[in-house]
């Protein structure tokens, strides 16, 4: 787990310390550099041709499956997912601060199953709004 992921989900950190860590762009820069390097290593002259083999030049599943036969391509895709998950978790965290809503559960889910975490955050916002209106 990256430092930012730990800061987002662990409760022993002070709120100020967590906020400072989450504000940093360092994890995104590191993941981006690693992703670019792995992507460079994984692509071959035939990569684009394999991916966009249809007459409409749209990616098709068989071409994508052939690409993911390479360990380097899988590694670059994994780093891509980590970066996106971390970014989404950061957005959820900031939205929670802005709206004074608990986000630890949604952030944790974003880091594991990003779309589920976002959905959970939206549901939490709706429920928090409903509870707030009833008081």
Structure description:
The protein has 135 residues and is mainly α. It has one domain (26-134). It has seven helices and no strands. The protein has helices at residues 3-9, 15-23, 26-42, 47-51, 61-67, 71-99, 104-134. α1 (3-9) runs antiparallel to α2 (15-23). The radius of gyration is 19 Å and the shape is elongated. 19% of the residues are buried. The model has no long low-confidence stretch (mean pLDDT 85).
Task: Give me a quick take on this structure.
This protein has 7 helices and no strands. The protein has 135 residues and is mainly alpha-helical.
Strand content: under 5%
Query: What spatial form do the alpha-carbon principal axes imply?
Result: elongated
Distance between the termini: 39 Å
Count of individual domains:
1
Count of helix runs: 7
What keyword list fits this structure?
mainly alpha; 7 helices
Topology:
Layout: H1 3-9, H2 15-23, H3 26-42, H4 47-51, H5 61-67, H6 71-99, H7 104-134
């Amino acid at each position: 787990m990256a430092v930012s992921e730990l800061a987002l989900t662990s409760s022993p950190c002070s709120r100020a310390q967590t906020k400072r860590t989450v504000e940093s762009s360092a994890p995104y820069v590191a993941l981006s550099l690693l992703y670019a390097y792995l992507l460079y290593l994984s692509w071959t002259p035939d990569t684009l041709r394999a991916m966009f083999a249809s007459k409409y030049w749209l990616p098709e599943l068989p071409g994508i499956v052939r690409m993911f036969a390479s360990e380097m391509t899988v590694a670059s895709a994994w780093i891509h997912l980590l970066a996106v998950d971390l970014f989404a978790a950061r957005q959820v965290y900031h939205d929670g601060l802005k709206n004074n809503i608990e986000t630890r559960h949604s952030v944790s889910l974003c880091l594991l199953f990003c779309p589920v975490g976002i959905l959970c955050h939206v549901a939490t916002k709706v429920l928090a709004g409903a509870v707030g209106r009833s008081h």
